[in-house]
Amino acid sequence: MNGRKLAAFALSGVMAVGLTACGGNGEPNESPAGGSGGEAYLVGICQLAPHDALDAATRGFKAALVEAFGEDGVKFDEQNAGGEYNNCATIVDGFVSENVDLMLANATYSLQAAQSATADIPILGTAITNYGIALGLDSTEDKVLGGNISGTSDLAPLDQQAAMLQELFPDAENVGLLYCSAEPNSVFQVETIQGYLEEMGYTCTQYAFTDVNDLSAVTQSACDGSDVIYIPTDNTAANNTETIANVVIPAGVPVVCGESGICSGCGVATLSISYEELGRITGEMAVQILTGEADVSELAIQYDTAVTKMYNAANCEALGITVPDGYQPIE
């Protein structure tokens, strides 16, 4: 096993090393904690920003590991980059110095920073739309990547999202595609769904903002030129839904979103995966790697294949939109 491990128990400042890990009641856990010696796996978590989707993915990831190893069998160094790429680099460099057993890179910038930091420590990504694009690979297909990186993709079927937009707004003519140009996977999603929407007869216009500083102005431009707006699974948008809502709701322009977290802030409807389930799938992959059941270089990118039509009741009411049967309210 690569990486340093943390001793799970200490007594009077002296580490107590046993043959098995013990639970809180002093009895051995059913699952061994970090292998021999009663030691706990140390897992570094770098999350790009604090927003609902990424929070849920981290929560599901941790739950899967704790379920497998027990509270004392795995320790997390969980850090949030606050939406800043440079912070991601600093965080993962720290994980390398700690010699963690495995890293979780939550969102594209976190994954790119981890890729640059180490070729030895196993890295699992989550909430990554397309690994080929995120990592600058020749192929944009998500498959076995080789090396020390694998993970899960949050890509919901874009053709189905386009069909949902058409179901809700069949009489619309102009669709604005609002996204952050600094996020390569947002560009990928927008270009892909634009093809589907144009085949349906919509006129599509891309509205790209560079960061939060021009988000409000670009959103206003999108409202001025669109009957409906589509926002992909974009981290900058997800972290600033209030800014978007403050423009689109007064303008009376509905927003269809790539995931439920964005929709809960500024959208009316989404076809979304469960990010908590996505994180859990990633955690199950981590268990396989840490126990030696699987090698990260041989694990294919995995997906949460269950998607749900959801709607934001408050925003739908504010815009006078009646959602057809088959949509679940976002809680």
UniProtKB/TrEMBL annotation:
Spans through the membrane: none
Q: Which SUPFAM superfamilies match?
A: Periplasmic binding protein-like I
Pfam families linked:
ABC_sub_bind (PF04392)
Q: Which UniProt keywords apply?
A: Signal
Record-linked PROSITE patterns = PROKAR_LIPOPROTEIN
Q: Does the keyword Signal apply?
A: yes
Signal listed as a keyword:
yes
Q: Which residues form the signal peptide?
A: 1-21
Family matches, as PANTHER family: ABC TRANSPORTER, SUBSTRATE-BINDING LIPOPROTEIN, ABC TRANSPORTER, SUBSTRATE-BINDING LIPOPROTEIN-RELATED
Quote the protein name from its UniProt record.
ABC transporter substrate-binding protein
Q: Which organism is it from?
A: Flavonifractor plautii 1_3_50AFAA
Taxonomy, top ranks, is: Bacteria, Bacillati, Bacillota, Clostridia, Eubacteriales
